[in-house]
Amino acid sequence: MEAIGSQSLLSFSSNRCTTVFYSKTCAEKARINGRLTIVAQGMLAPRKFMRRRRKEVIFKDASDEARQRNWWRMMMEIEQLGSAVQVLRNQRTDKKALPRDLVLGTLMRFKQLKKWGIVSEILEWLRTQHWWDFSEMDFLMLITAYGKLGDFNKAERVLKYMNKKGYTPSVISHTALMEAYGKAGEYSQAEAIFYRMKASGPEPSPLTYQIILKLFVEGNKFGEAEAVFQSLLNEERAPFTPDQKMFHMMIYMYRKAGNYNQARKIFAQMAERGIPQSTITFNSLMSFETSYKEVSNIYDQMQRSGLRPDVVSYTLLISAYGKARREDEALAVFEEMLDAGVRPTCKAYNVLLDAFAISGMVEQAKTVFKCMRRDKVDPDLCSYATMISAYVNASDMDGAEKFFRRLKEDGFKPNAVVYGTLMKGYAKANNLERVMRVYERMRVQGVEANQAIYTTIMDVHGKNSDFGTAVVWFKEMGARGFPPDQKAKNILLSLAKTPEEQNEANELMENGTSDLSEPMRSKSRESDDDNYDEGVVGKVNSFPEREAKSDSKESRGSKYLYLDDQSDDDDEEEENDYESVSVEEKEELLFANRLVDCTSGD
Description:
By secondary structure, the protein is mostly helical. It has a domain at 412-532: Serine Threonine Protein Phosphatase 5, Tetratricopeptide repeat (Alpha Horseshoe), CATH 1.25.40.10. Helices cover 55% and strands 2% of the residues. It has 26 helices and four strands. It has helices at residues 62-81, 85-91, 100-112, 116-127, 136-149, 152-164, 171-183, 187-200, 206-218, 222-234, 244-256, 260-272, 279-287, 292-304, 311-323, 327-339, 346-358, 362-374, 381-393, 397-409, 416-428, 432-444, 451-463, 467-479, 486-495, 499-511, and strands spanning 28-32, 35-39, 584-585, 600-601. The strands form two sheets. The chain has a two-stranded antiparallel sheet with strand order 1-2. It is globular and about 85 Å long. Mean pLDDT is 77; it is low at 1-42 and 513-602.
């Protein structure tokens, strides 16, 4: 798409974006939910860059090819086993020492992959090998690995051994020990190490400050983080000024604390102090804006700054338009992302799916789902849950049930979000029997209900004017550890007709659930549908009406738009002599209880 003037086509204020964006690809029109909408038969046409090409590797000679292929096989075997020592032992022939470049290459690769368990395993094994000269840098890498793993006991042990051997105290080893305590949740110990370093050395490095800020923010010690940051920002004797990553951390901290105005001030200070702003900087601002107009304005500002949007930028903008029920713009942004040669992630597809699912646009959602498979992007549990939500919002419960069965046939296990979506659909249809049947199936499979499921059950009982049962479920919600939300309270108050019922409802509102009676015991009802016999994926802590969370690996309990799994972690890498290999990894914006950070250079 071409820009209009100085603004992108994506800076739609209200009516710039119409169905003209579909003119190239769409085949037909249909009326969905009373609205004239495009059936996206030909949208998301495949782009050439999406085709996976086989990488061509050039070898120096036959021996080099044999050596490289052997290393690849060895790395695959380690990945499959999840352990490296036995594989490395098998590489030794006639008890000869392993080539140094093979060992270092293996360590470097797993370091880049952030597989710190394997790194520490290899290094501990090397300590016992007579043919390997275990140097100070090996010790530093080992203590760094334990720091990343949060194993402060082993990190402390290695540091004591280094001191015993006479190695000079190093900022790397102390920073790693500090991080180990922080990763284990021992924030006060991490803080003590940091201030001991400031007082008596070794002098903290910028990386040390980055890590302590991150630990403070993770531990919700916002005051301490702000004090450290301000000391660097304002003190004349500060060893250095805050860098870009520290500013990013503070923007994330204020976002996490809900202080958006202060986050914007930190953003403005970056420009005032000459700190370069990156795509990640703008992404962090976009992540906490709720208005699609504000998100679009930040997106335009980023482009005017000469920065190229990445997959996170596009995904945030798609999400903003989707939440505003502006499906045309959401699709247009996705198409622009493809035209720009940016490969969409599973999360990006899920957000576009959600944009259509909110409005019950099943045909469009099905097209997006098919495109995922065509483009070799494996749908996760969130993708399936969002498709079920699309059917539910279109009041097509037969379609929702069929997709629910497909979810299990494809090897996924439904969690509370999936069951809750089905229950919400039957509640909309005022089908109390089906709501309770789904609930019983969920409980039989060991899936714990969340707050929204209890509210949904209260809601369907409320539609049947059953005050007594609504009270029982209100108490059950509190007894299960979920404080009733405002919707549950409103339902209870609306059902109270007589003065006695109103008094009881007001009492429950005033006293909360601290003195609630014994929780109701649900009678197990045998399921008449074997397709529901699945186990729990994970306990979900919240369930907004549009929420569709969790993936095939784990259920995190975070909000639907979760952009934090592009990489396993956002940890910074220590700078030492091992960094002979340089890899630039583009990190996603980590929000929803994760750190916002920028690319890490390993």
